[in-house]
Structures are given as structure tokens and as C-alpha cells.
Amino acid sequence: MPAGKAVADAETAPVKKAAPARKAVPAKKAAAKPPAGESRTALVRRARRINRELAEVYPYAHPELDFENPFQLLVATVLSAQTTDLRVNQTTPALFAKYPTPEDLAAADPEQVEEILRPCGFFRAKTRSVIGLSKALAEDFGGEVPGRLEDLVKLPGVGRKTAFVVLGNAFGRPGITVDTHFQRLVRRWRWTAETDPDKIEAAVGALFPKSEWTDLSHHVIWHGRRICHARKPACGACPIAPLCPAYGEGETDPEKARKLLKYEKGGFPGQRLKPPQAYLDAGGRPAPPLGAG
Fold it and tell me: What whole-number distance in Å separates Cα of residue 285 and Cα of residue 88?
């Protein structure tokens, strides 16, 4: 999260069109729960329909971390653990301005890095991780972020989830990002009963063409952050309620459900201070400048 220029860019970034209206569930409309004996074919159809519906609701779904190259995305993803993407976006401009390359960060004074990363929480551990992975990149990969899963997961602080974020969004190589939101939603939707992230990844991946994996991850994660919350899902305001076996676990009254919706300050999705033009073109908006609201 950022320096003055990043804030200025966020304030002046153009918005080409208004965000599209979100689908609403009519009052008292109950979900059509799939039968207990749902066939494999029916499950695949229902899962893919949910993804299509979410694609319409979140046409601007994207990684919510600001980045300009694979190295920045890798570091930002590691920093995003146990904090918000907006907080990371407000912090990384100063980090990358001072240490623009893996070689620079590898040679950094840990105390200076810790001071920059303090707002992200767990700043000492995160400092060790980003300096460690930078050293590994400089020494083992010529200062370049590798584009293979097996190489990425060898880096300090990098697991499969982080690796797939980088592969899907920096290299265009499909992957499923199994974070806490993704795990919660796919089990609620009965796409799988697995609890191990690797098994969830395999089970859900088998329901969709590989080419859809990265966008699917964005759709599910955005829905989990904004509507299908862990404690109080907003069932009455959910656009996919008719397809959800867990409808009714949360508030079903439309008016009460709408009050549970979680969007960033300003009322529109988006935690990026400097979003890509494609995101703006699809109706997304930049995050608010620091100190707003």
C-alpha cells in the first residue's frame, strides 16, 4: 500500500463506463437445491452455470494486487497473507521504488525492509520471505521469476496457491487458486467434500476446462469476499441462490441481506490503486485514495 504518485494515479484514473448492475434475487425466492443423488453430469452442468453467472456479475474480476511484472506480483502475493490486498497495494509502491529488482531486494538491509512492510502485519516474517525468495531468484534463476510450478514452489514463502496466482496472472498459464474463500464456497456449493487444498484443486479442476481455471478462481474469490461470507452469507442478495445447495445458511430477506454486502469504500469492487485498463473498461473502479472515508 503507497507513495503519493500512486494515490494521484488512483484519483485521476479514468472510468470508462459505470459498473454493471448486479443481479438481485427476488424476494422470497427459494433456491432449487440439487437432489442428494446429483449425477456427475448434473454437477458439472451446475458448476459451470454458476461460473457463467458469476462471470456476468463480476466482469471485471481480476487479481486485486497491483503489479507491473512477475516479480512484483510474486512479492505482493506473499505479502498478502493475513492482510488485505488494498493494504498490500498501499505498501508495495515504496518497496518497489527502493528495490525494483530481485537483486536489489536480495541485498537489502532487513531492518529497512521491515519498516516499509510494517503496515502489512507479520512484517518480520514477510521480510525474511521476500528477501529469501529474491536471493533465490538472483542466485538460481538469473534474477527472473520462473514460469514453472515446480520451480516457483521451491522459493521461500511460496506455496501452490501463490504459484498459481503468479502463473495465471503473470504468465497466462491456467491454475486454480485455493484460498480460504475458494475452499469455503466450493464446499457450500457441493462441488467437492474435500478439505485438503491440493485435493480441492484437483476435484474442482476436473469440473472445468483448464482454460477457465484462472478466471474461475477470480469469480469464486470475489464472490466469497463480497457476498458469500464465512459467518453471515447474504443469501437473499445472492445472484446464484437458485443454484446453491447451501441457500438459507445466511440471511434470506433481500433487504437485510443487502446490508451484509461487503464492498470497498465507495461502493464498488476493487482494491487496486492502479488497475489495468481492461478492468476499467469492464466497469471496475480504482480503490479510493488513502484516507478517503
Answer: 18
Please identify which of the residues 179, 232, 265, 281 carries the catalytic annotation: 179
Catalytic residue of the set 126, 161, 215, 274: 161
* 85 given a catalytic annotation: no
Q: Residue 284 has what DSSP assignment? A: -
Over residues 124-180, the pLDDT tens digits come to 999 999 999 999 999 999 999 999 999 999 999 899 999 999 999 999 999 999 999
CB atoms within 10 A of CB 278: 10
Q: How far apart are CA 170 and CA 178, in angstroms?
A: 17
36 with 193: CB under 8 angstroms? no
- Confirm whether 281 is a catalytic residue: no
Distances (CA, A) of 209 to 44, 59, 77, 142, 212: 11, 19, 25, 34, 6
Q: Which residue matches cell numbers 463480476?
A: 58
Overall pTM > 0.85: no
